[in-house]
Structure formats: structure tokens, C-alpha cells
Amino acid sequence: MSILDILNNLPSLVGNWARLENATTSDDKPTELTRYVGGHNREVQPYITGYHQVIFFLPYMLFTTSTFPAEDWLHCTCESFTPHTYSINMGDVPGVGQVSTSYPISRTTNREFTLSFREYTKMPILTIIKAWHSLFNPLFGASFYGKGIAVPFAYKGTAIVYLLKPTCDKDGEITDDDIEEVYVYQGVYPITCPEDVAAQSDQATNESVVLPVTFKFDGAPADLSILAVKSLVLLAINKNYKDTYKKLLTNV
Amino acid sequence: MGIESFLSNQQLALKNSLGSSTDVDRPTLMSRYMGGHNRTNQPYITGYHQILVSLPTALFGSAEESGAVSWLRSTCEGFTPHSSNMNFVDINGVGQLGSSFPTSRVINREFTLTFREYRQLPILNIFRTWHCLFDTHMGISSFTASEFVPKNYKGCIVVGILKPTASGSNTLISEDDLEDVYMYEGVFPTICPEDTIAAADQATNDSIQASVTFKFDGAPFDKSNPDLVQYFIKGMSDVGGNYNSVYEILGTSL
After folding, report:
1. How far is the C-alpha of A182 from the C-alpha of A173, rounded, in Å?
2. So what's the ipTM on this one?
3. Nearest chain B CA: its distance from A36 CA (Å)
4. Which of A32, B17, B69, B200 has the most neighbouring CB atoms within 10 Å?
5. Element (H or E) spanning A209, and its range?
């Protein structure tokens, strides 16, 4: 088996190649040298940020016994997303006379991402994160879980972050054409409880509040380079833009 | 059009604009006097512009487009062009001696057209439709992902700056009537003039003009491009840009 055969059979590499191929099949690109892409008769469009969606699967033991729709609140109020970072660590090998070379030796994911949520009356977002942090009882310092159930299954969750085009199909549903990128974070747990931002108060200013919450996750996120991810995340979102009209038209 | 022809076209336009040194009637040297009846030159007069509009059919549909184009052409009463600026880098010498070197040229990529609004609000509805690229209730586009490309939402506007004359046969506009022309490509309106048109106060009753600022891409072509001159003249002819046609309406009661 050649090295190329081995590379061809690595799932993530094959997926990345497929994505790269799809990204470069369009004939319409910025013009060489000038990089100009203006004019009205264009069939290519710059990537636009800000159309993300978030789906949470909260830990079974902490949340699903409650009737409180925590996953929906997190989905509906998430206004921004800052992803994880990847970096390559290099090993430097010096030669004679300061000649040196560098070799990639490992790849590090910082295993953190941040979501910002708009807070509403009755403080649902703060309450959700507080409930998640209640894995530990701050009054006596230990967990209220019995030793048999204090396991990640009971307190870690999954978050899927969709980076989308500002589009949907004619029925208002998100299709695979609308997805620019997806991150599936597993083993998710919030690092911060935004108590200091949410409960901060000064009578001289009256503001609406956005709460940034940083989450830890395990391993590395699955993205669209894993071919099965797209069908999985399309099943998971199961929401429709046109539902907005149900509320808008209630007084008509 | 290459670099050489771009410059040479500008030089040719300049030459045509200046005329020869002997047979062109200019303000008199020193006094700058231009009076008297025996003159063969004339100050430039503003306010005789015409526009050609090409709207994105994916947003307007072919039937609606023709009506919308006619309304825009018929009601456009004002035009403010783009601006073009040169950026400089300053190099200082000893004792505050300074020199400046041009580093780049910047077009602000905006122009403004002003339209008179009529009953049933055609102008407001045209720009509402154009802005319908985004559904304001859903927050995303009315197009699908494959439709969401400039070809389907950007347009093209050509603005002709004219003399108060129509020198072509049967009062058509000819090349002689054209002072300058701009072709803006990749055009999209930045504002929907809802706040101007729908504002109401019972203490005052007015007719309304709506100013709409458009973004465009790159830089506009101008009169130095001979193809554009012919494009505009033919375009005005194709859309029936004939001053005589005013009599068709005036004559209906005769």
C-alpha cells in the first residue's frame, strides 16, 4: 500500500479533500492579480458571519427531569460564538552556526469555546448555568451526586454550533446548502457562571445584558470534514425559520 | 480595456473637452469676460440628467422589472455622483521640510439618486422589493443558498449628464447632447426611504422626494469609454427616450 493509499483511507483527510474540491469547483472567483469580485453579474458571494445556530443536548441527570425548556432557551438567546483554536507545536532542531529547522510534533486544541446569551426576565440563562454548576454544592464544597452517578454522563453535555448562510429553502428549513461549517462539541461543561455580569447593577445606567459563557469540551470537535456529520446535524436542528410568522401573525 | 487604452482614452476625452487652441470660444484672458451675443460657447448647465436602470430580475421578476425601471427613469429628479480621492504618504525632511507622494486612489463607491414619489407609492415599493433580499421577519434571505449570489440581487445604473438639447432625429438624444456619462455596476440601494416617504404631519402637506444612496462595485466607467457613450445613446433610444413624446400626452384633449 502506498502512502497515497493510506492517506486516501483516512476519514478526516478524505473529508477535507472533498470539501476543498467542492469549494474550488465554482468558475466564478475573484479575478487573478486584481482580486476584484465586484459587478452585478456575479455567481459567487463572500462568506458572511453572524448567522449561527446552536443546539444543546444538556446532561440527563441535571436537566431532563425538569420541565423547564433549558435547551430551547440556550438555542433562542445565543447571539455570538467564539470557536476553539488549533495550533501546531513545532520542534526546532538547531544546526551548526544557528542554522535551524522546525518539525511539527503535535497538534493542540485549546478545548474551549464561548457563547454569549441575551438574558431575559426571570433570568433563565443565569439559572441554567447555575443549575449546571450545581454539580457541586458550594455550601459544603462537595457534589450532591452519589459516587455511582458522579460521572460525565450525568453532568457533561453536547453542543452543536452551525455557521450558516443567511438563507433557507422555500419551506423555511435549513438544508445542507445553507451550512458553511458545523462544530459538534462533546463533553461540554461551562467554566464560568456569569453571575458577575448578569447580576451587576447600577441605578445610573439601565441596560439589557448579554452573558458570555466559556465552555470546556473534550477531544476535538467534529466538523464537516467528517462526512457523516452533515446528515447528523441536519437531523438535530429540526427547526424552521417560518415559525416566526406564527408569533407575528397572532394579532392579525 | 488595458492600462494604455485607459489612459489614452482619458487623454482623448481631455483633448475633445479642451478643443483646439484657436477655434474655441473661451472666456477672454485676464478679464474672463464671456458676454455678448456673438458667442459660440456656452457655460455648462446642470439638471438635465437621464438614467438607465437594469434591475435584478430574480428579485423583481421580468414583468415587474419593466414597470419598476420606467418609474425609476421617469421620477429621478436629482443625482449626486461618487467621489474620487487620492491618498498620499508624507515624507518629512530636516526642519519640517515635507513632501507628499500619491499612494493610491479611493472611490467612495456611493452615489445618490432622488426620486419624486407618486400615489400608490411606486418608488417606496420598488426599494422595499429590492431590500426583500432579506426577509425582515425571519432575519435571513428570501433566496435559497444557490440563489444568494450578486447576479440575483445587484443591478446596473447608467447616468447620463446632458445638455438641455436633443440633437438627434425626432428629438432623440445624440452623442452631441452628452456632457458625461457614468455606468455603475454591482448596484444595491443602501437605504429604503421609508422614513422620508411615509412620514406624515397634518400641519403640512407636501409632495415628497426620496433620496436613495446606492453602493456600487469598483469604479464607474465614464465618457472616456467610447463604447459606453454608444451604449447610453442606444439605451435611451431603445426605451423611447424621445422628448417629443410629451406631446402624445398633451395632445389627448385636442
Report:
1. 16
2. 0.72
3. 8
4. B69
5. none
Nearest-Cα residue of chain B relative to residue A45: B149
Q: What is the CATH number of domain B42-82+99-241?
A: 2.30.110
Angle ∠(B164,B78,B64) on CA atoms, nearest 5: 105
Q: Measured between CB atoms, does A242 come within 8 Å of chain B?
A: yes
Under CATH, what is the fold of the domain A3-8+49-86+108-241+244-248? Pnp Oxidase; Chain A (2.30.110)
Query: For an interface test with A, which of B141, B147, B188 has the most A Cβ atoms less than 10 Å from its Cβ?
Result: B141
| Maximal C-alpha separation, chain B | 81
Strand order in the sheet with B110-116: B49-54, B155-162, B178-189, B209-215, B110-116, B76-80
254 residues of chain B, pLDDT tens digit each: 666 788 888 888 888 888 876 677 888 888 888 898 988 888 999 999 999 999 998 999 876 677 899 999 999 999 999 999 999 999 998 888 899 999 999 999 999 999 999 999 999 999 999 999 999 888 899 899 999 999 999 999 999 999 999 998 888 999 999 999 999 999 999 999 999 999 999 999 999 999 999 999 999 999 998 899 999 999 998 887 778 877 777 766 66
Q: What is the pLDDT of residues B36-48, one digit of tens each?
A: 898 888 899 999 9
B138 and A36 within 8 Å at the Cβ level: the answer is: no
- Chain A environment of B147 (Cβ under 8 Å): 167
How many whole angstroms separate alpha carbon B49 and alpha carbon B94? 51
* B32 C-beta neighbours (distance < 10 Å), count: 8
With cell 453571575, the residue in question is A195
Q: How far apart are CA A115 and CA B252, in angstroms?
A: 68
* Set of chain A residues whose Cβ sits within 8 Å of the Cβ of B56: 40
**Are A42 and B137 within 8 A, CB to CB?**
no
The ranges assigned to domains in chain B are 42-82+99-241
Spell out which residues of chain B touch residue A45, defining contact as CB-CB under 8 Å: 148-150
Q: Does B231 touch chain A (CB under 8 A)?
A: no
Describe the crossing of helices B62-75 and B122-131 by its angle, rounded to 10 degrees. 130
Would you place residue A3 in the very low, low, confident or very high pLDDT band (cuts 50, 70, 90)? low
Nearest CA in chain B to A28: B149
Q: How far is CA A157 from the centre of its chain?
A: 13
Distance from CA of B133 to the nearest CA of A (A): 10
Residue A23 near chain B (CB below 8 Å): no
A150-198 residue pLDDT tens: 788 888 999 999 999 999 998 999 999 999 999 999 999 999 999 999 9
Q: Does B2 touch chain A (CB under 8 A)?
A: no
Sign of CA dihedral A141, A145, A146, A151: negative
Q: Are A113 and A84 in contact (CB under 8 A)?
A: yes
